[in-house]
Amino acid sequence: MAATRQSSFDDPFYQPADQFFPENHKIGLTFDDITLATLYSEILPRNTQLDTTLADGLQLNIPIISSDMDTVTESRMAIALAANGGLGLIHYNMPERQQLSEVSRVKHHVHGLIQEPVTVAPDQLIGDVLKIIEERKFAFGTFPVVDQHGKLVGLLSGHVVKPRYARRKVADALTPRAQVQTIKQKELGKDPIARADKFFNEHLGIHKLLVVDDQDHLRGLFTMSDIERIAQERIAQFKPARDARFHLICGAAVSATRNAFGELDRARILDHVGALVERGVDVVAVSTAHGHSQGVGDTVRVLRDAFPKLPIIAGNVTSAAGVEYLADCGANAIKVGQGPGSICTTRLVAGVGIPQMTALYVCSRTAAKKKVTILADGGITKSGDIVKALTLAQAVICGGIFAGCTEAPGEVIEISGKLYKQYRGMGSLAAMRAGSAARYGQPANPTQKVAAEGIEALKEACGSVDRVLAQLIGGIQSGMGYLGAANLPQLRDKARYIRVSPAGLREAAPHDVVELKTGN
Ligand code: XMP
Asked: Is the pTM of this model over 0.70?
């Protein structure tokens, strides 16, 4: 039996990491330079587990993080990532106060609860409401009615939002407050979805439940259809990533901020991170292009001393010495990647950076010794790259893959009938002018003379994060099935590598056919 599972004939060709990378130590390898060998498997892709622990108290249900970039992660993206079991890192290219609100939005987001429902006022005409529905393309017609202080006055049911009543006032058509079903915010408990589900079970024919505070201000809205969808999702394999209080988890990036004298502004960093912690942030990422540097190390040290239990991500590095340094300063997870990003020009501009698989190998061995984890940051364009990265890293960080999603900041742009969203490097001139210059060690108000290390670009609009993640997760599970890996530690343990020739790379993609686009 055992003979069918392994053959020593394979060994010189398909090598484990500790043999393969040292043997290839004279050349920097990236995702497309290598491929993984299949192994005997008893594992079906759909049964593989993707949970990963990045630090004490920081566990994800899928090993995917959205990048702290101003065209990728604000609250909407972070909510979508956490709802799917991953993590979003809110970028810092915004005023500190705004970053705090973005984190609060994620932490207060209750899956299934519409926190800021569209409301109407009692003195509006039904005709005005019809106009709003038309203009904003709402697919619903029932609205809570609130007064100018946000207090609940009633519910305008879709049955009366009809052209024949256009000249009637909302006040004449609404279901009065006393007859509207509500629940107090504080009664929602730890599991608001279960509470709303129970309510709909007990109240036959009621499809909306409004949430109010003690003063009867409207605080949210549950609809039965959302609750039913979520009940379905609950039997799904990958649960949302939540904290101990059942809130979605959220990360925030911070920089090694300097004062007017060029010294590390410890007080400001501590103030801001203290405020982030108060808002419930689950992890901070000290995020710069050169993590193996005094400023980043000192920032991590300051934070570790002040917040002994706070998970800290720091980076970016590509060397064992860099990992060791940041681990010694107190970081729990280290971002690995210099120049692999789809919008990066660091390697062209500075001549610096390491192809990603070699960098990950070098960093992973030291990380294991120092008991920290590593995050593969940048250069990921397909799910196969994620599988390769996860043979060495505990999670991946993606920018470009999510930048075209509905949940990414920014508007959709139409060019020649195609839809795009803006995607720019945090080291591009535009992003540095908006605040990210410190990340690249540049002055706060960079001029054209400053060497940008990133470009401004467009990504084709690609729909919801849910859809993109479903594809990525399917690919990761498929890769794990081929390697007979039931979980991520097994994937790291079992991976066998071989280099790919240019002809092999051509062979790996569809070739010699005319591809049909079916729209799937
Ligand atoms: P992807 O390939 O996912 O890469 O689009 C995202 C990662 O790229 C890094 N990043 C930059 N690197 N110049 C760089 O050299 C830049 O302007 C830049 N902006 C972002 C970052 O690590 C991100 O997660």
From this structure: yes
